[in-house]
C-alpha cells in the first residue's frame, strides 16, 4: 500500500523515465523498445519487475501505460525532422489490462493526434495472454490500430499458452522469441528446436521474427544461420537513457 501511493506520486512528480534498447536488422538500428524506469527519490532506480506487477493489481497500470505511450509518441514527434532518428520505430509494451480497456483505441488515436507522432513508427508489444483474453475484440482492436499504421509484435513468444489458430486470425507483424529460449541455444538442442520452429512459423506466415536477450556472438551466429535477422540484447546495446541512445555508436538502418 505504501508503494502504491509512492507510485501514484511518481506519475505526478515525473519520477518516471523511459530507457531505449536498440532493435537491429543486419547490424543497424531499426528501432528501440522503450522500457520504463522509476527513479525513486530515496531508493534510486527501481526496476519495472518491482512495480509493474503491483501497478497491474491496483489499476495504476492504466495511467502508467498512458504515460509511457504519450512519452514514446512525443519522442517520435521530436525526432521527426532528424536526418536519421526520424526512421526509428518505438516498441511499447502494452499490458493485458491496458489493452483490454474499452477506450484503448480511442486513447491511442488521441495520443497520436495530440503528439503528431506517426502511427507507422509505433509498435505495440502484446503478450500471448493479452491477445487471447477475448480474441474477437482483440482482432477488432488490432485492425483499428493497424488502420492508424501501428504494428504488432507478440512478446515473450512461446512462453504463454498461445493458440496458433488464433494467431492466424490476428494481424500480427512480428513474433518476438523469448530470451529464455535464446540463452542456451548453443547448448540445449530443445531450445534450438523451439527457436527454429518459431522462425520457420513466422516466415511461413509471412511475418518477421526478432530474438531478444541476445548476449553473445555465438547466439547471434546461431540465430543468423537459422535466418533470424532481427535482434535485441546486451550484445548490441543495454537499455539506455535517451541521450545515450541518441548518441550510441550503432548506425541507423
Ligand atoms: O526493462 P526490464 O528488463 O527491467 O523489464 C522488466 C519487465 O518489465 C519486462 O517484462 C518488461 O516487459 C516490463 N516492462 C518494462 N517497461 C514496461 C512498460 O512500459 N509497460 C509494461 N506494461 N511493461 C513494461
Ligand atoms: O519482457 P520484455 O521483453 O519486455 O523484457 C525486456 C527486458 O529484457 C528488459 O528489462 C531488458 O532489460 C531485458 N533485457 C534486454 N536485453 C537483455 C539481454 O540481452 N539479456 C538479459 N538477460 N536481459 C535483457
Ligand atoms: Mn517487451
Ligand atoms: Na520479452
UniProtKB/TrEMBL annotation:
Occurrences of domain EAL (ranges): 1-253
Localization of this protein: Cell membrane
Entry protein name: cyclic-guanylate-specific phosphodiesterase
Portion of the full-length sequence here: 635 to 887 of 892
Amino acid at each position: 500500500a505504501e508503494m502504491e501511493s509512492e507510485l501514484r506520486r511518481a506519475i505526478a512528480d515525473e519520477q518516471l523515465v523511459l530507457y531505449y534498447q536498440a532493435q537491429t536488422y543486419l547490424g543497424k538500428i531499426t528501432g528501440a523498445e522503450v522500457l520504463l524506469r522509476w527513479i525513486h527519490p530515496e531508493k534510486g532506480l527501481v526496476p519495472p519487475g518491482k512495480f509493474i506487477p503491483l501497478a497491474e493489481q491496483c489499476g495504476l497500470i492504466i495511467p502508467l501505460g498512458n504515460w509511457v505511450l504519450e512519452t514514446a509518441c512525443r519522442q517520435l514527434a521530436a525526432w521527426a525532422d532528424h536526418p536519421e532518428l526520424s526512421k526509428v520505430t518505438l516498441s511499447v509494451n502494452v499490458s493485458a489490462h491496458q489493452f483490454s480497456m474499452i477506450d484503448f483505441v480511442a486513447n491511442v488515436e488521441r495520443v497520436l493526434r495530440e503528439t503528431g507522432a506517426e502511427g507507422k513508427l509505433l509498435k505495440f508489444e502484446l503478450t500471448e495472454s493479452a491477445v487471447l483474453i477475448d480474441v474477437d475484440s482483440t482482432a477488432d482492436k488490432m485492425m483499428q490500430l493497424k488502420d492508424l499504421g501501428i504494428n504488432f509484435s507478440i512478446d515473450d513468444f512461446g512462453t504463454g499458452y498461445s493458440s496458433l489458430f488464433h494467431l492466424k486470425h490476428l494481424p500480427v507483424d512480428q513474433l518476438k522469441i523469448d530470451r529464455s529460449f535464446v540463452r542456451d541455444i548453443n547448448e540445449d538442442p530443445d531450445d534450438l528446436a523451439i527457436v527454429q520452429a518459431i522462425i520457420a512459423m513466422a516466415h511461413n506466415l509471412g511475418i518477421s521474427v526478432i530474438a531478444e536477450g541476445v548476449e553473445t556472438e555465438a547466439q547471434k551466429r546461431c540465430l543468423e544461420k537459422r535466418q533470424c535477422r532481427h535482434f535485441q540484447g546486451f550484445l548490441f546495446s543495454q537499455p539506455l537513457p535517451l541521450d545515450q541512445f541518441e548518441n550510441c555508436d550503432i548506425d541507423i538502418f
